[in-house]
């Protein structure tokens, strides 16, 4: 379910939850019943759930006031070596 925002000229803004793609350009105001125009807003991303997303938000918040300064590129990693015998038969560049 997605939350869509509408604006009534008399009553103001309100939200309607419905399946994605089923929103129309106008919706009846729940208070006065007049036709309200759909508002296009930024997507509302929920915090929590996925650990990687939560860590990304925390990192962004920490670095907002005091960004980390990089003085050198990260150290080079050694090449990865596969122990799979099928990879030994692959053509080499």
Short description:
This protein has 93 residues and is an alpha+beta fold. It has helices at 51-65, 85-88; strands at 2-8, 12-18, 26-28, 35-39.
What summary fits the major beta sheet? 4 strands, antiparallel
Poorly predicted tracts of residues:
none
Overall form? elongated
Structural class assignment: alpha+beta
Helix content: 10-25%
Notes on the protein architecture:
With 93 residues, the chain is α+β, with helices and mostly antiparallel strands. It is built from two helices and four strands; from the N terminus they run E-E-E-E-H-H. The chain has a four-stranded antiparallel beta sheet with strand order 2-1-4-3, with no helix packed on it. A hairpin with a 3-residue loop joins strand 1 (2-8) and strand 2. The radius of gyration is 25 Å and the shape is elongated. The relative contact order is 0.13. The mean pLDDT is 86.
């Amino acid at each position: 379910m997605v939350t869509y925002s509408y604006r009534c000229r008399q009553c103001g803004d309100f939200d309607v939850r419905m399946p994605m793609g089923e929103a129309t350009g106008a919706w009846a105001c729940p208070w006065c019943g007049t036709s309200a125009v759909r508002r296009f807003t930024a997507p509302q991303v929920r915090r929590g759930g996925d650990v990687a997303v939560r860590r990304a938000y925390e990192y962004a918040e920490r670095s907002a006031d005091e960004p980390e300064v990089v003085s050198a590129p990260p150290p080079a990693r050694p090449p990865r070596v596969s122990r799979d015998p099928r990879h030994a038969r692959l053509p080499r560049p």
